[in-house]
Structure formats: C-alpha cells, structure tokens
Specification:
Blueprint lengths: L6 H17 L14 H16 L18 H13 L7 H15 L2 H12 L5 E4 L15 E5 L2 E9 L9 E7 L10 E7 L5 E6 L8 E12 L3 E2 L5 H10 L5 H19 L11 H29 L6 H25 L17 H8 L10 H12 L6
Parallel strand pairs: 1-4
Antiparallel strand pairs: 2-3, 3-7, 4-5, 5-8, 6-7
Helix pairs in contact: 1-3, 3-7, 4-5, 4-6, 7-8, 7-9, 8-9, 9-10, 9-11
Bound molecules: flavin-adenine dinucleotide.
Length: 392
C-alpha cells in the first residue's frame, strides 16, 4: 500500500481546511453527526447546504447525483477533515455514508434520480431504522411489517435507538414483507418520509442526558411501492451492503486526534497547579494516545484504500471499529485524568476546560463498543473472516 495521497488530494485537503476554519466557530458544541438543540440544527442545515453547493458533501458520487466523481480516498479525506474540525455535517453518516451508497448499488435509475441529488445537496437528512426493541445484533429477527395494499405498502411496528430521527427528513427502513419466509429472506428496504401520517418519534435521552437517539413508531404508515428499493424480500442483502459502507471509521479516528491535539495544547499552558507538560507521566500518556490514534488512522486508510480499489473490506473494517471504540474510551479517560478536578466540569460550567467536551466525550465513549455493531460481533467477524477460525 502507498501511504501518500496525490498532490491534488492534499491540495483539496488544504482547501477544505481553510474553508472549515472559517466556517466553524471555535467552541461550537455540535459534533460531526449528532445535535440536540434547535440552534445546532439550524447552523448544521446552513453549513451542510454550503458543502452541497460546492459538491463537497458526497465527492465520491457520480456528478449526475451531485458528487464530483472522485474516489473513496477523497470521501475519506473529507470525512477526516469534517471530524477534525468538529463540523456539524448534517447526519453525514446516515445520509452520505450509509443510505446514498447503498442506493447507488441497489436502487433503480429512477430512484437514484429522485433521492440522491437532495442528499448530496445537503437538503435531505436521513436516519437509519434498523434496530428494534428485540432485534439488535440479531437484526434479521425484526418484526416491523410492510404489507402491500394497492400502490402502497402499509407499515406497522417500532424501531429504536434511531439516531437523529427527530431531525431527519427521511429514513432508510427495513421491514418484513414476507411473514412466512425464513427470517433473512422476508425483509425489504424502503425510503420513508419522516412526516408521513402515522410516524411518531419519541426521544430517548442517553447517558449524557442528550437527545441523540429515539424510538420511532409506525401505525398504518402508507409508503409508495416505488419507495421500496433493491427488490422485494431482498432487504437482507441491501442491509449487509449498507453495513459494508462507511467502514473506515476515519471520523472516529480524526475526532480522537483532535481531542489529543487539544489536550497537548492545554497541557503546554500554565495552569494553577503548574504546567502539566512538564511532568513526564503526562507527556508519556499523551504520546501513547497519539501513537494509538495514528495506528487507527493507518487501519482506516487501509480500509478506504481497499474500497477505492473496488474491494469490500470486512474484517479490516471490524478491526478499525474495535480499535476506535477502545481508543475513544481511553482518550476520554486519560484526558479527564490530565485535566484533574476540572475534568469533572460539564459544558457551560464556570471553569470548564476545553469547553467541557471531555466530560461529554467520556460518557458518550461508552456507546462506542455498542453502536453500529458491538465489539463482540466485530470480534466474531475478525475471528472467522480475518483469522479463519471455525464458528464456535
Ligand atoms: C449511540 C448508538 C446509536 C445507535 N444508532 C442506531 C441507529 O441510528 N439506527 C439503528 O438501527 N440502530 C442504532 N443503534 C443500535 C445498535 O445498532 C445496536 O445497539 C447494536 O446493534 C447492538 O444491539 P443491542 O443493543 O440490541 O444489543 P444485543 O444484540 O442485545 O447485545 C447485547 C450484548 O450481547 C452481546 N452479543 C449479542 N449477540 C452476540 C453474539 N452473536 N456473539 C457475541 N456477543 C453477542 C453484544 O455484544 C452485547 O454485549 C445505536 C446504538 C447506539 C448505542
């Protein structure tokens, strides 16, 4: 593998950096993908449209759908810079990272023309309606049903842990269209309008007392049959494609690098207890974190490089996911320790250091090994597909 990026890609990274420095106010409280107040959402809507106008939201998509026809490497560089600058990129993960690429593979030309340009322009934000109260790791056991009725399907059921459902315009939904078929074979994928009659979104406050995810209830929701994509009862195949995208984990790596750099900057300043940087143990801890973040970055680059070559990384992506979930916890834990008692202060408290971000990061890091497929499941993939070990 060649670790260097082309001069054009590096030049684009620099251009992006200048744009993001100018656009994102210092101390902006929203992060890459999650928002829990109106002000953050308004700012993110405007910012996302600006990216879309420049075709910078989905650079790896064909120009016809609002992209730049570039490779996964440029998409990765964009994701890396957005996360490093803590840009509020409007549900990028679920829209550009997950739903769009899945539709590029599975949707009809008519569906691509209908849905993709509004994703790339930053106009339509998506959420992902996969998990249900009884179906997480065993996703294929889902119970939400879609029954054909004339030109529509009628949806009934419930999704849970749906990130950003409260601010999304549309959802990529998996629902059971054949009750009799074996569990992996009777599922279909739909695009659903979040303002369709019968859709109810209820916030579920998380460990950091933030409203990031939701329960979504479907009561006789009519969805046009033309919104089913990838073929009836072929939804499991669509879902597995979905889970193959956005797997470089670069945003998590980049977010961790930014926090480490912020901590280094903070430690070099003089504080009431002295200059933390003068203590070798502080420097060693920060060096360890920086090395581990760099390891994660290289794993992420390898994953994106495989994708750019047309390969589908699976155990490589799982390695990155496990590594970054662990690093997220470690960065927050170590960071809180280096800040001392100030590390206990929440955002907005007088005396909070680094905007109190470490406190929130510490709490939210706990979800890293669970969200998007648990670390246990990732380790199963690494064991079987990476190491060739037999199923237990
Ligand atoms: C912050 C966050 C955001 C999320 N956002 C979304 C979203 O937008 N859309 C969406 O659809 N879902 C979302 N999820 C849900 C997420 O996909 C599930 O939480 C995840 O798939 C695990 O499912 P579960 O929570 O039901 O746990 P379970 O599957 O019930 O697992 C419980 C425990 O058992 C272990 N386990 C289960 N099966 C196995 C196995 N075969 N081998 C070894 N161990 C196993 C798990 O590792 C875990 O420790 C989100 C979750 C979080 C935390």
């Amino acid at each position: 593998m060649d670790f260097r990026l082309s001069p054009e890609t590096e030049a684009w990274r620099a251009e992006l950096g200048t744009f993001l420095d100018a656009e994102i106010p210092d101390g902006f409280e929203g992060d890459d993908d999650f928002f829990d107040n109106e002000e953050q959402v308004d700012f993110a809507r405007q910012f996302t449209r600006k990216l879309g106008e420049r075709r910078w939201f989905a650079p790896a998509w064909p120009e016809r759908y609002g992209g730049m026809g570039k490779t996964q490497i440029e998409q990765m560089v964009l994701n890396e810079e957005l996360a490093y600058h803590r840009a509020p990129a409007g549900g990028r993960l679920f829209t550009i990272g997950i739903t769009g690429p899945t539709m590029l593979v599975h949707a009809s030309d008519e569906q691509k023309d209908r849905f993709l340009p509004k994703m790339a322009s930053g106009e339509d934000w998506y959420c992902q309606g996969f998990s249900e109260p009884g179906s997480g790791s065993d996703l294929a056991s889902m119970q939400t049903r879609a029954v054909r009725d004339g030109d529509d399907y009628v949806i009934n059921g419930q999704k849970i842990w749906t990130s950003n459902a409260h601010i999304a315009d549309k959802m990529i939904l998996l629902a059971r269209t054949d009750q009799e078929a074996p569990k992996h074979k009777g599922i279909s994928a739909f695009i659903v309008d979040m303002d369709a009659p019968g859709v109810t979104v209820q916030g579920v406050p998380n460990i950091a007392y933030r409203h990031d995810f939701n329960q979504v209830f479907f009561e006789d929701v009519r969805v046009p049959a033309s919104n089913l994509f990838g073929g009836e009862n072929n939804g499991w195949y669509v879902a597995t494609t979905t889970l193959d995208f956005e797997r470089s984990n670069i945003a998590a790596v980049s977010g961790a690098r930014r926090t480490i750099h912020d901590l280094i900057g903070w430690a070099r300043e003089k504080h009431p207890g002295g200059r933390p940087w003068d203590k070798p143990s502080v420097r060693h801890k920060l060096a360890d974190l920086a090395i581990e973040a760099e390891t994660g970055r290289l794993v992420a680059y390898r994953t994106a490089w495989l994708q750019a070559k047309g390969a589908v990384p699976n155990y490589e992506a799982s390695m990155g996911k496990v590594w970054m979930a662990m690093l997220g916890i470690k960065v927050a834990n170590t960071g809180i320790g280096i800040l001392g008692a100030y590390g206990q202060l929440t955002p907005g408290s007088a005396g909070a250091q680094l905007y109190g971000r470490l406190t929130t990061a510490y709490l939210l890091a706990m979800s890293g090994p669970i969200a998007g497929g648990t670390s246990d499941i990732q380790k199963n993939i690494i064991a079987q597909r990476g190491l060739g070990l037999p199923r237990g």
